[in-house]
Write a structure and sequence with these properties.
Blueprint (H helix, E strand, L loop, with lengths): L4 E5 L3 H13 L3 E6 L2 H11 L3 E5 L8 H12 L3 E5 L4 H8 L5 E4 L4 H34 L3 E5 L5 E4 L1 H7 L3 H4 L4 H4 L1 E4 L9 H8 L3 E2 L4 E4 L5 E12 L5 E10 L1 H55 L1
Parallel strand pairs: 1-2, 1-3, 3-4, 4-5
Antiparallel strand pairs: 6-7, 6-12, 8-10, 9-11, 10-11, 11-12
Amino acid sequence: MVRARLLIVEDEGIVALNIQNRLQGLGYSVVATVSSGEEAIQVAGETRPDLILMDIKLDGNVDGIEAAAEINRLFHLPVVYLTAYTNDETLNRAKLTEPYGYILKPFEARDLCTTIEVALYKYQMEQQLREREQWLATTLKSIGDAVITTDTEGLVTFMNPVAEALTRWSLEEVIGNDLTQVFQTINEKTRAVVQNPVLLALQQGITVGLDNHTLLVTKDGAEIPIDDSAAPIKDEVGKILGAVLVFHDNIEKQQSEARLQKNNERLEAEVAKLSEQLSQANAQLRQMEEQLRIEMAQRQGLEREN
């Protein structure tokens, strides 16, 4: 099993050595021990430890909270605070850096190990989640359909480039806003507002599709025929976490249908014309047959007289 690599940031030498011995006794690897915030930032960048144990009160001009904030900004490494300070002001400052845990001095080896393992597990899970989110975002950006996702309140959380192009809205403009601001639809024939499918999907927990003849009204007022469906996003136990809306423009389909309709009308006109011509030809043929019958009857009458 690969041992976790830890960086100790502690300005009291004896305390730092004691922590190092405890960590090594617990099976961890200590990449370095430093005493100032400036050193912590530098060494964190050089060694990229799995976790940093950070004292809040340090030597130098940068305290542990400031160092943790800079490390998080630059390297996104997990930090657990080691501190004897429990006043509200210090804790509130520390919270802003999103630490992965706190260990109050003095502490037992068991508490140290538990806090480290929980922090490492939390960080690993968050990393996996970020990777999955990045993979999903990349996938959604590359597909040909427009995609918009929302939270349970119907507020926009993501919109891919195709959706931006169709709606004429950018993700920066609408993220966190109500979907109905972005996705407005009307019936092409009645001009009535079409109920938002995402709201139905969130309320009913089922996939909802749009009726035919639906038009998307874009940011600039253009109307685009679309097909779409909305589905709830659920976790492993079925709890609804949000919704996803997938849609595409129907312009080509409408144009194809219009061309097909025009061709059908032309063919129907041709058939009607041919039918009329055939009817006229049949009438002429009947007239010719009647004329021929009369002439033959007259001829037969003359032959009898002779």
